[in-house]
Amino acid sequence: MNDLVARLWRSIGGSVQWRLLWLSQAKFMVGVTGIVRDGDGRVLLLRHRLWPEGRQWGLPTGGAMKGETFQETVVREVREETGLKVRVGELVQLKSGYRLRVEVAYEAEFTGGTMKIDPKEILEARWFAPDDLPEGTLESHRLLIFGKAG
């Protein structure tokens, strides 16, 4: 029986195989976070308009777009939310997150630009020393800042 299934699978061709797999597999959203640091070791935090009251401070974060690398997502999200430019560094987290969401996080280095927040999404953006993060910073983002992400 296994040989028959294997022969059938191989005979249907790549595009049909892909569609069958697509239909039968879970679909995931990908959330990408940038841990942006400046030359003094401070970290960029944003107070997000759409996040729950009391937990609005966090790192630049957004969804990956179709055809975009995760590094490109970090660059785009930081630019859209703050107007700043960054160079993406090391991957520090790749895990399945809440429900059907994959969480990806990269270190990133501030390289220039002038702070200009997107008021539709961001209430405030500031640089913080890691040992002086504001009240209401997401715990998962605190862990990323201190390199203790799970």
Automatic annotation (TrEMBL):
Source superkingdom: Bacteria
Keywords, comma-separated and alphabetical: Hydrolase
The keyword Hydrolase belongs to this UniProt entry's keyword annotation: yes
Gene3D superfamilies on file: Nucleoside Triphosphate Pyrophosphohydrolase
Entry annotated with the keyword Hydrolase: yes
Cofactor(s) the record lists: Mg(2+)
Occurrences of domain Nudix hydrolase (ranges): 27-150
Pfam families hit by this protein: NUDIX
PANTHER family for the chain: ADP-RIBOSE PYROPHOSPHATASE YJHB-RELATED, GDP-MANNOSE MANNOSYL HYDROLASE
Membership in a protein family: Belongs to the Nudix hydrolase family.
Protein's name in the database: NUDIX domain-containing protein
